[in-house]
Design goal:
15% strand, alpha/beta, 9 helices
C-alpha cells in the first residue's frame, strides 16, 4: 500500500506474536523495518528474505548499553527513525497469588516489560525531538488497566507501561511526537499458548465477544497508531479488548 514509504521503524520483540505481526504489516505498507529480538534464528527465518528492507538485530533489550549502541548505529545508517514499536513482553509466573510471587520473577518481568520500553524510548526520543517528528507505541495490556488475578508481575508492569505512555505523550506533545499505548485483551499468540488453560479461560470469560483477538487485528490497530494520520492523539491507551474495556 505504501502508507509508510520512506519511513524507518524499529520493532522490538519481532520474532513472534504481536511484534512479528506488526513488523510484517509495516513492511507490507512500505516501511524500512529494524527488528530487535534475542531469537536471531527466528528473526532470520522471518525477515531474511526482505534483504535490505529489514535489518536484523539479535539484541537483549533489557541491556541499556546494547540498546543505546544499536539505536545509535541505526540512526547513523538511516539518518532518520520515524517509528518505535515496543512489543517485547513476558508474563512471568502466572496463576499465583501475590504472596507467592518471587522478587526474582517480579524483577525479571519488570526488566523485560517496562525497562526495555524505557531504554528504547530514552535512546530514540532525542533524535525524534531534533527532527520534530516521531511515533512511539508501547504494547501494554488490559491487565495493566484492570489487574488480572494471578498475574501481579505482568499486570503491574503493564500498568507502568501505560503510565509511561501518558507521561511521555504529554512531555513531547508540542514537538511533533506522539506516544501511545495499546492494551489488548487476550490475543492468540505463542505467549498465550504457554499460559495455563485456567488463566486463559479467566481472561477470555471477561471478553463480551467471547474470543481471543487476532494478530491481524492487533497489527492493523498498531499501524494506525504509528501512522501520520494519528496526529492528534497522544498519551492515550487504545483499546483492543473485544468490548471488555469500554472506558
Amino acid at each position: 500500500m505504501g502508507e509508510f514509504n520512506k519511513q524507518v521503524a524499529i520493532v522490538t520483540g519481532a520474532a513472534s506474536g504481536i511484534g512479528l505481526a506488526i513488523a510484517h504489516k509495516l513492511l507490507a505498507d512500505g516501511a524500512q523495518v529494524v527488528v530487535f529480538d534475542l531469537n536471531q534464528e527466528r528473526l532470520q527465518e522471518e525477515f531474511g528474505r526482505y534483504k535490505e528492507k529489514a535489518q536484523i538485530f539479535a539484541l537483549d533489550v533489557t541491556n541499556q548499553a546494547l540498546v543505546e549502541k544499536a539505536v545509535g548505529e541505526i540512526i547513523g545508517k538511516f539518518t532518520a527513525v520515524d517509528i518505535l514499536v515496543n512489543c517485547v513482553g513476558i508474563t512471568g509466573i502466572t496463576n499465583v497469588h501475590s504472596h507467592e510471587v518471587s522478587s526474582e520473577d517480579l524483577h525479571k518481568v519488570f526488566e523485560t516489560n517496562f525497562m526495555s520500553c524505557f531504554y528504547t524510548s530514552r535512546a530514540i526520543l532525542p533524535h525524534m525531538v531534533s527532527r520534530k517528528y516521531g511515533r512511539i507505541l508501547h504494547l501494554a495490556s488490559i491487565s495493566g488497566k484492570e489487574g488480572n488475578v494471578g498475574m501481579l508481575a505482568y499486570s503491574a508492569s503493564k500498568a507502568a507501561v501505560i503510565c509511561m505512555a501518558k507521561v511521555q505523550g504529554k512531555e513531547y506533545a508540542e514537538r511533533g511526537i506522539t506516544v501511545n499505548a495499546l492494551a489488548p485483551a487476550v490475543i492468540q499468540t505463542p505467549l498465550v499458548d504457554k499460559m495455563p488453560e485456567q488463566q486463559v479461560k479467566y481472561m477470555t470469560d471477561k471478553i463480551p465477544m467471547k474470543r481471543c483477538g487476532t494478530l491481524e487485528e492487533a497489527a492493523n490497530m498498531a499501524a494506525y497508531i504509528v501512522s501520520r494520520d494519528n496526529s492528534f492523539t497522544t498519551g492515550f491507551t487504545f483499546d483492543l479488548s473485544g468490548g471488555r474495556a469500554t472506558y
